[in-house]
Amino acid sequence: MLRQVRYFQAVVRNNSFSEAAEECHISQSAISQQIKALEQELGFSLLERQNRKFVLTPAGEHFYKKSLILIADYEQMCSEAAKIARGDEAILKIGYLRNHNSPEVHQALEEFSEKYPRVDLQLLYGNHEDLFDLLRTGGADLVVNDQRRAFSDEYVNLILATNKMYIELAARNPVAELSSVTVQELKNIPCILVASKEQQATEKEFYQTIIGIQSEILFAENLEEARMMVISGQGFLPVEGNGPVMTFGTSIRRVPLCRGEEQITRNYCLFWKKDNSGYYVEEFSDILRSKFKSSKSSTGDVL
Questions:
Q1: pTM summary value
Q2: CB of 299 within 8 A of CB of 244?
Q3: How does strand 247-248 pair with strand 252-259?
Q4: Which of these, 107, 128, 163, 164, lies nearest to 271 by C-alpha position?
Q5: What is the pLDDT of residues 20-52, one digit of tens each?
């Protein structure tokens, strides 16, 4: 049947039996017979023949559209299976936010590696725009990133979690005693952001324009450096999470960050290009989503 479906697609694509026969390197009568055999096996007509012309029946139009997806999936499956059979090295490139610390991602990486030991996992770190560029140019197969723009139909866009925003600041700072704090109340305390030199301007614009930060902006190369700056009293660090107010030892306090009376939230997402969907991409996606679902269930939240 698969070959007959390909013949049917060729006829529709060329809008001609003769041109489809030439493309498929068979005779016109043979391709016509194959289409009739396909219709007999399916039990319904795909084409309504009108002298030397034809039109798709409603069922035929539906079957044609769905068959394009079926054949594309089949070819992708064959390609991936052939690589496995040849022993080709499989690589899954995952982009990950430089300043994010997600136990769910760590758990997903561990489970995926155990399940597929022959797949080489490559982690690529960056800020939001770094990861977007990697995804856009094919440098990463999928990225775990925050949402800063409207979702695009070119990508699969999965919201993993809607995280609440907090600030981390030195426990000895009087602001650390508040049950929550607004961006306006932080205007005299420097804001520490984790960003590479290339992305500092972009990060600064986002936090000032979208989040509403009004204070001086300082930068750290990584999360560890940023927390050392917090401990030394240089400023506060915006972070995300869904846990309660936390104390890190005796040095750092985490306080909810609000805009007005509402705590600020941000979407944490998994993205990949629709035309790059493959077995390993979707398998990692399923594992990662299950980890976030389990995490939310254990804290009483609902996906």
A1: 0.57
A2: no
A3: antiparallel
A4: 128
A5: 898 888 998 999 999 999 999 999 999 998 777
